[in-house]
Amino acid sequence: MPAPGENLRIDPARLWDSLMEMAKIGPGVAGGNNRQTLTDDDAKGRALFQKWCEAAGMTMGVDTMGNMFATRAGEDPDALPVYMGSHLDTQPTGGKYDGVLGVLGALEAVRTMNDLGIKTKHPIVVVNWTNEEGTRFAPAMLASGVFAGKHTQDFAYDREDHDGKKFGDELKRIGWVGDEQVGARKMHALFELHIEQGPILEAEHKDIGVVTHGQGLRWIECTVTGKESHTGSTPMHMRKNAGRGLALVTELVHEIAMKNQPNAVGAIGHIDVYPNSRNIIPGKVVFTVDMRTHILPKLNAMVAEFMERAPKLCADIGVEFESKIVGQFDPPAFNETCVKAVRSAAERLGYSHMDIVSGAGHDACWINDVAPTAMIMCPCVDGLSHNEAEEISPEWAAAGTDVLLHAVLETAEVVG
After folding, report:
1. Would you state the pLDDT for residue 2?
2. What is the spatial distance between Cα 389 and Cα 225, in angstroms, rounded to a whole number?
3. 222 sits in which H/E element
4. In the 8-state DSSP scheme, what is residue 332?
5. pLDDT tens-place string over residues 76-87
6. 61 φ, ψ to 5°?
7. Strand (E) positions, 23-151?
8. Are 334 and 373 in contact (CB under 8 A)?
9. Vertex 100, ends 94 and 101: CA angle to 5°?
10. Are 328 and 217 in contact (CB under 8 A)?
11. pLDDT tens, 257-290?
């Protein structure tokens, strides 16, 4: 079938207005957003999204994980839908574009199809996945994980936030428990537009990242146990300092990541120190190691080396080390046909582009196991994300959405 014409473009101003309007819901304290999953503000954002979708002639379906599916009918009632979208929830100090661009860019693509009277063989669905961020209810990409069979719904419903509130109870409280069975929907393909959340595209002066792979991830929760004692009166040689164990393990993580370059990363993000007092040597430190690469054997080797060396480092200074893996997924390779559709769209539209590996996890990484999937990325200023200072340009947003539109239309097959 012929590809969409190169003059077919979205309305950049309308897309930007939608992004700014959504950003008014759950404003942060420094210009970004705090619209965490299953909060009252999440419910307001969902309601606005539904209103916009229905105004664009789509019908809304919601499953029992709160995933939202807005459908634009196709000409062939037996054809599987082409999906596009991302998530509307944010970090506590999140930006206005992470996830949101993928949802509202997909909505803008449908609006453009409506404006131009474009019909497709396959139905088109815009999706908002619940709890992608995983900040309030771990793990990340929770609802898409249930959809793809990675987690059970019971597991998801039992996740608790810091206040002991359960996911299932909060989903019910805000009124977004749907009646569809999770994962019952079948997909012809899925495309997810997202900001890069890294500095590569901006540094390389590229408009579009054609995402070929996602990184695999291992989250290793570690506990170093020593002995609490007075910082002033305990002789240095008699200390069992859990904080020192943390310091040694931090350097170990960095060392392992550096010797596995390129395309491997590692860091410690979340740390709890007990009793966290100025004049008490820490008796216990609990922290999470985050290791990632898109090469599975390399990822497994990094984790194995960490698990072997960390206990020895701690034993050498008289503290105990325990660990368990609390989050993981293997690196996905996105569908070659879908990736080609993205690359062809960027070339047809005249946008500069490069192949890229996603450094972050996304809902598309889970869905890739149950449907042909690809991702499109646009640059973000200084690679900054998960931060209220996160920023993109209207031009970057429009370019990414133009490519999304073209890739989806090629896959959904324009008719007439």
Report:
1. 55
2. 37
3. strand 216-225
4. P
5. 989 999 999 999
6. -120, 150
7. 59-62, 68-72, 82-86, 119-120, 124-128
8. yes
9. 120
10. yes
11. 999 999 899 999 999 999 999 999 999 999 999 9
Tell me the backbone φ, ψ of residue 310, rounded to 5 degrees.
Answer: -60, -45
pLDDT tens digit sequence for 31-44: 999 999 999 999 99
The answer to whether 208 and 105 are in contact (CB under 8 A) is no
Residue with tokens 């008014």: 24
Q: Residue 395 corresponds to which tokens in the numbers above?
A: 């031009």
**N- to C-terminal Cα distance for the chain?**
11
The SS3 assignment for 48 reads helix
Sheet holding 320-329, edge to edge: 264-274, 284-293, 216-225, 320-329
In the numeric block, the tokens 């019971």 are attached to 154
Q: Are 389 and 31 in contact (CB under 8 A)?
A: yes
Tokens of 134: 């995983």
Q: Provide the sign of the torsion angle of the four alpha carbons 143, 100, 359, 376, taken in this order.
A: positive
pTM over 0.85: yes
Structure tokens at 202: 């901006």
Q: Is 365 left (phi over 0), alpha (psi -120 to 50) or beta?
A: alpha
Rounded-to-5 percentages of helix, strand, coil across the chain: 35, 25, 40
DSSP 46: H
3-state SS assignment for residue 204: coil
Task: Quickly count: other Cβ atoms within 10 Å of residue 135's Cβ.
Answer: 19
Which of 358, 341, 333 lies closest to 405 in space, CA to CA? 341
Interacting residues of 300 by C-beta distance below 8 A, sequence separation 6+: none
Do the beta carbons of residue 89 and residue 37 sit within 8 Å? yes
Produce one character per residue of 15-31: b if its CB has 16 or more CB atoms within 10 Å, e if not. bbebbeebbebbebeee
- Calculate Rg over the CA atoms of the chain: 23
* Tokens at 293, concatenated: 């690469």
Give me the DSSP letters along 224-281.
EE---EETTTS-GGG---HHHHHHHHHHHHHHHHHHT-SSEEEEEEEEEEES--TTEE
The pLDDT value recorded for residue 6 is: 77
Q: ∠183-369-383 over CA atoms, to 5°?
A: 105
